[in-house]
Amino acid sequence: MSQVTITALLTLGLIIALMIYEMPFTYSNAHVATIELGDDPLIIAVSDLHLESNRKDLGCIGNYLRNLGKDGIYLVINGDIFDRAHGRVLSQNHIHELVHRLNLAGINGLREVIYVMAMYDHDPRVDHEEVRYSINGVSVRVIRGIMKLVIGGRTFWFLHGD
Q: Of 9, 17, 28, 104, which is most buried, counting CB atoms within 10 Å of its CB?
């Protein structure tokens, strides 16, 4: 077999393996959590925080929210909060680390942190479509799948692109 043929077969095999691994077609079967909010919430969305490998001071996120001085704040974290937690079960310790690293405790206007989990990479797993935690007075909703956010008459979709 020529080197070109071998290279082409290896490349094709790699492409097929990636398509099977990523399985984008499974999004059609993903849980969709619909959340309806009033007409005037404040939505702050971030993603890819990678707490375990990111040594930056992420407390700036909590400080920013605190300095807004507003009520009705929702912090949406759109996947990849962790790095090495993939395959493990999400625990109270994971959520505690999130609240601590982002300095989220004591923010009066913070209504809820909504964590939309990545479906394949990095994030831990949960056995339910939605799980709720309360850590240091911070309400955290974890969604495995997709969030459909309805505000007034407008709809916004959040899912991690994996």
A: 104
CA distances from 91 to 12, 17, 33, 64, 80 (A): 39, 31, 20, 26, 15
Please report, for the chain, the start and end positions of each structural domain, with discontinuous segments joined by +. Answer: 1-28, 31-158
- CA distances 158 to 46, 73, 128, Å, are 11, 17, 18
pLDDT tens column, 1-24: 788 788 888 888 877 766 655 555
Q: Which two tokens stand for residue 65?
A: 């929210």
Q: Are residues 98 and 125 in contact, defined by beta-carbon separation less than 8 angstroms?
A: no
Pairwise CA distance, residues 63 & 70, whole Å = 13
Considering only CA atoms, give the Rg of the chain.
19
- C-alpha closest to that of 86 among 56, 118, 114, 54: 118
